[in-house]
Each structure stands twice: as C-alpha cells, then as structure tokens.
Specification:
417 residues; alpha+beta; two-stranded antiparallel sheet; 14 strands
Length: 417
C-alpha cells in the first residue's frame, strides 16, 4: 500500500467496503429443517479455511515451480502489476481512443456457459458495458501486448514453450463466474476494481456438481447456481473446504490448471489472464537460461504466445490446446513405428485421442497439414519439421470446443442490469 497515491487509497477503501468477504456463515434458522447457507451464495455454507498464500514480490521461476506449479498450490502476488503501462493507462477513454477499432468477445455478465458469446468493437463495448448486461473476456489484441509485462516468475526456463494465451477481461458491477475449473494454469492479474476468489481443490468436484473430466476436454463447470446454493440437491457443499483471496489493482493470483474456483467482481474491473499449459510428464524444471538478464522487465510483445488475435482475424480463438504439447503427442505416437506414422494409423490415433468427438476430419487434416511431402507416411523428423501453422491446425481440429465466430450483435444484450 505504501506505493499507492491518496486517490488510489481512497478508491481501494471504497472497493473494500463493496462486499463482506469471506462471508460470515449464518446461523441456522430456528426450527428450520434446512441447513444454514441454503439458498445463499457460495461461501455461506462453510467458513473459509483461510487466505490463499500471499507474496509481496515475485518468486524466482525455480521457486515458483517447486512451491506452487508442480504441487498445484494457488498463490497471490501483491502489487505485481503496478509498474506496467496497462495499469496506469487503461482508462475507458484511453482504450477507446487507441484501440477502439479492435474486436472483442462479449458475454452476459452473470456467466452460465449455456449462452453464446458475441462480438463487438471495443469502442462499442465501452459505450455500453456500464449500463447493459455484458462483459468481455477475449484474447488480448496483438496491438495491445506491448503495454503488458510478463510476470517475472514465468520469464524463463520450462515455462517459455508453454505460454498459451493472454486474455483481457472488462466488466462493471455485478460480474460473477460459475463454479468451474480451467484446463490451463493461469495468472490472473487485476488492473482496476476488485475481484473475490473462492478456491477449492479438484478432489471435491463431485460434491460441487462437477462431472468427471471427459477425454480431450480440459475445462469443466458446475450445475450449482452460485448465487443460491441448493443444499437439498447438493448437500455435499457443506463438507467442501475452501480458501479465499481478494484482488485489488496491481495484484495477481495463480490458479493451477484443474483448480476449482468461483469469482465475483466489484466496480469497474479490468484483468489480464496469462494462460500456460500444465507440464504433464515433466518432473524437473529446466532453468538453464534463467540468467539475471532474462529476468529483467519483459513486454508481452517480446515473447512467443501461441494463440493471439490481430484486428483483421476472422475468429477470436480461445481455449485450444498448446501446439507444443500437440506436437509432442504426435511425435510420441510416431516413435512407436519404425517407418513412421501412416495415414491409417494417424486416423486411428486421432479418433482414439478425441473419442470421435473432435471438430476436424482426421483424413483431411493428415492430407493437408501433416503429410506435407504427400507420401502417405510421416517420420518423426517430418513431424519435427512441421511449421507452427500445421500444428495449430491440428490443435484446432482435435478440439471439441467451438471457437468464437463472428457475431455482429445480439439483441438480448440490450437487457438492462
């Protein structure tokens, strides 16, 4: 707090008073057969076990790996983003003037995963989001990346091949997520407003109405209504331990892939979320390039992110697999055969891996993107030499989740708060 000015301290004071969090568990109503917390927001059914672990400076990448990434333990970094341009510059006026022509993906502010997203220019969104039922969660446009810094804790070593996607979130009073988990690790950083996080270990998923993870689907969400928990339908919620965190401008939270969470926003909220892929099969961190020079301030525009968006792109692509991981999957399969991977074997592997539910046709994918020499078979060297474009097309085709297509507007979005 010492680095904040008087105006920022006053704003923080307002945000702190916006809601009581964590909530105080209510007493059971006299003579009621229903448990305390029934039909109340998540968090009122059982008291929090305490704060998510906090740090006031970035961890070295090796320490971050050992203490948090490998064991899947969340953390909060206080003040990590106070020195990046986006923190001080991204007012509505600035964003409208500099980036208003960029397209963003828009959803209803009380997320339910049942309705489709649509697409607006950033200027149109900023003109409407304070009074209409909408918020944006979208891939950060390429042109904005130079104003964002990469967290020091993932600047080098093993992380560099797994940086997946950078998302931009903008909302206004009353945004809230469903109870869910994501496929990827993410570092969610708040630039404006306040966000409260309820954090729950994955092993409690069945008590929370989350089904078991399906093949080739990395994320999942609960059937719980987070504003009104029905303890008759979901009595197991009473037994689910949770921890909590409140983010204020400049703070970041690390959410491990698969870690269940639910989020509420207050005030005008702007966040960045940097996704990086879980390191399945990798036990040890390779920090051979983690020199002092490598750990200096680095703009997001200076590192490779696999899934990006430029103003003229036809699709705003979110949630696909990491191309580096997809390439290794195909390499592992090809190494089982002396002469290489035939089209027939590729199709069988594709269908088995995706349970037959993928977006793409494996025969067409092999012909167009994998078998570039048109020989009907690909060696491990052929796969090593595949361009990133081919691997990204393979990742798209293997995914079950539909990409956000161009939608000019949605008449229902004009519903007032």
């Amino acid at each position: 707090l010492a680095s904040l000015g008087q105006a920022e301290l006053s704003q923080r004071d307002i945000l702190e008073k916006a809601a009581v969090f964590p909530p105080v568990r209510p007493d059971r109503p006299p003579a009621s057969p229903l448990p305390a917390g029934h039909k109340m927001p998540l968090g009122n059914q059982k008291e929090s076990d305490g704060h998510v672990i906090e740090y006031h400076e970035a961890l070295h990448p090796q320490e971050f790996w050992e203490k948090h990434v490998k064991p899947n333990v969340p953390l909060v970094f206080r003040g990590m983003k106070l020195d990046e341009p986006a923190y001080s510059l991204w007012s509505d006026e600035y964003l409208r003037e500099k980036y208003g022509d960029q397209h963003v993906r828009v959803e209803f502010k009380r997320e339910n995963r049942q309705t489709s997203a649509w697409r607006l220019t950033l200027n149109d969104f900023l003109n409407r989001y304070r009074t209409e039922n909408m918020y944006t969660v979208t891939v950060l446009p390429e042109i904005m990346r130079h104003e964002v810094k990469v967290p020091k804790s993932i600047l080098c070593g093993t992380y560099r091949k797994y940086l997946q996607e950078l998302n931009l979130w903008i909302g206004f009073n009353g945004t809230r997520s469903v109870v869910h988990y994501d496929a990827d690790h993410n570092i969610h950083c708040l630039l404006s407003g306040r966000k409260d996080f309820i954090m729950i270990e994955r092993r409690y998923q069945l008590k929370l109405g989350l089904g078991r993870k399906a093949n080739n689907v990395g994320s999942g969400f609960s059937r719980l209504e987070p504003d009104s928990i029905d303890l008759v339908k979901f009595p197991g919620v009473l037994d689910v331990p949770w921890t909590h965190a409140s983010l204020y401008p400049g703070d970041c939270i690390f959410i491990p892939g698969g870690y269940i969470h639910q989020v509420r926003g207050y005030g005008r909220t702007i966040s960045e979320t940097l996704l990086f892929t879980p390191f399945e099969g990798i036990e040890d961190f390779d920090g051979s390039d983690c020199t002092e020079e490598k750990l200096k301030y680095t703009k997001l525009s200076d590192v490779q992110i696999y899934w990006t968006y430029e103003g003229g792109d036809g699709d705003i692509e979110m949630g696909y697999m990491n191309p580096h991981v997809v390439k290794n999957m195909i390499l592992t399969e090809a190494k089982q055969y002396k002469k290489g991977l035939t089209k027939k074997r590729f199709i069988a592997y594709f269908l088995q891996t995706t349970s037959g539910n993928a977006q793409g046709d494996p025969s067409q994918v092999f012909d167009k993107w994998i078998d570039l020499n048109k020989t009907g078979i690909v060696t491990t060297q052929d796969i090593e030499n595949l361009p990133l474009k081919s691997i990204k097309e393979l990742a798209r085709s293997m995914d079950q989740q539909a990409v956000s297509r161009i939608v000019r507007d949605n008449p229902d979005s004009k519903t007032k708060n």
